[in-house]
Amino acid sequence: MAYYARGGLSFFLVKSLSTRNLVLFGGEKGPELLSGGLSEGAGKNFDNSAALFEGLRPRILDHYKFLVNSAGLHKHPRS
């Protein structure tokens, strides 16, 4: 949780015993998962690892795009 609280990107990945799906939770869901288990946190379900990585890609790109834009690093150095 501390990494997420400092702006890092973190996840909890769980394999559901009942459905065999992979369930992905954002790092901010840590306290909810701790207090109530999987039923408390709203995770995203994936049928397999390929679908998981396909689903992760936009989240990772959005996160780092936001960080770059908020730091003012998106401008070309010669402009």
Structure, explained:
The protein has 79 residues and is of the alpha+beta class. The protein has one domain (2-70). It has helices at 2-5, 30-36, 49-70; strands at 11-15, 22-26, 44-46. A 3-stranded antiparallel β-sheet has the order 1-2-3, covered by helices on one side. It is flat and about 45 Å long. The protein starts with a helix and ends in a 9-residue tail after the last helix. 5% of the residues are buried.
Q: Which features characterize this protein?
A:
single chain; 79 residues; 42% helix; 3 strands; 3 helices; alpha+beta
- The rounded distance between the terminal residues' Cα atoms is 38 Å
Counting structural domains, the number is: 1
Tell me the total number of β-strands: 3
Strand content: 15-25%
Q: Percent helix among the residues?
A: 40-55%
Tally the helices: what do you get?
3
Q: Give the integer mean of the pLDDT values.
A: 81
Order of helices and strands: HEEHEH
Gross morphology:
flat
Q: What topology emerges from the helices and strands here?
A:
Elements: H1 2-5, E1 11-15, E2 22-26, H2 30-36, E3 44-46, H3 49-70
Antiparallel strand pairs: 1-2, 2-3
